[in-house]
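Re: that backbone. Tokens:
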């Protein structure tokens, strides 16, 4: 029979469902990281239990990602001295505006006040201290570090 007369299933036209990509490198987190990861896993497990069977596969994929992240988390304490590192809360001036961020692990970051240690801004800040100037976006001394808090 010719393929022109063959009925194709709807599944043939769907995009393939890939696993969520794991960021490269170690899974460094702050002391609060394991609890945040465990809460995410518990929330997904509850969603899977409440979801209809057809809606469970994307949730299971997310759960596999978060279980992997929870299993590979490496807690990193903040630096002992006043230098910026993972877990540091940094106040700085960039382009005339003052901003405060906390440097955290990939999975702890949010869009505003908590940035991942691999983000370009965090990489520019790590290793600096209060009063230092840091290069950023190909500009020398673009960032002025005002204060560093390590808990």
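Recovered sequence:
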């Amino acid at each position: 029979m010719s393929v022109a007369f063959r009925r194709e299933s709807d599944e043939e036209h769907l995009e393939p469902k890939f696993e969520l990509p794991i960021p490269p490198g170690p899974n460094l987190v702050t002391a609060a990281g394991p609890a945040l990861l465990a809460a995410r896993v518990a929330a997904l497990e509850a969603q899977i239990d409440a979801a209809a069977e057809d809606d469970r596969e994307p949730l299971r994929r997310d759960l596999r990602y978060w279980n992997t992240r929870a299993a590979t988390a490496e807690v990193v304490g903040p630096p002992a001295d006043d230098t910026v590192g993972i877990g540091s809360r940094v106040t700085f001036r960039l382009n005339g505006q003052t901003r405060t961020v906390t440097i955290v692990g990939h999975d702890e970051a949010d869009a505003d006040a908590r940035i991942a240690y691999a983000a370009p801004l965090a990489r520019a800040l790590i290793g600096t201290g209060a009063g230092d100037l840091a290069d950023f976006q190909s500009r020398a001394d673009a960032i002025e570090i005002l204060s560093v808090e390590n808990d």
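The helical segments are 33-50, 56-72, 120-125. The chain has two domains: 24-75, 89-149.
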